[in-house]
Amino acid sequence: MALLKILKYPDPRLHKIAEIVEVFDESTEKLVQDMAETMYESKGIGLAATQVDVHQRIIVIDISDDKKDLLVLINPKLIKFDGQQEYDEGCLSVPGFFETVKRYENITISYQDLKGNIQKLEADGLLSVCIQHEMDHLVGKVFVEYLSQLKQQRIKKKISKLRRAG
User: Fold this and answer.
1) By CB distance 3.0 to 4.6 Å, which of 18, 92, 134, 150 could disulfide with 48?
2) Catalytic site residue 134?
3) Domains of the chain, with CATH numbers?
4) What is the pTM for the complete model shown?
């Protein structure tokens, strides 16, 4: 396994739309392993392939305390949703920033596993938020884009200052 470089907001590559995965082979498994290692090493709970500059519809998530419950979602589709919830979200592509975002409370998704088998998952709470957050990355959206233009500009300026400071 290898650590992958995570793109940082506002990198334009974060806005690329991911393509559907059609081949499930060793390279897909290797990418998922590398994404999981990168997510765990970065102390994250979710990572979309878009964030590591691979534009395929692949997500890894692990919200467990012991980090032994890896969830791999390939070609996820939201098929049912209801309710609303607000959560303070952070992102490995926007390190150090947390903002409140409104999302669906309960969701049902379909996805494919590493073997290409179609699965169905119902989620609520943090898992629901995490899935929606990562699915946004697959369509080129970063969570800060739910915020006002003023807040987005403020975050971009702070990130730019941090980059200049090294």
Assistant:
1) 134
2) yes
3) 12-165 (3.90.45.10)
4) 0.95
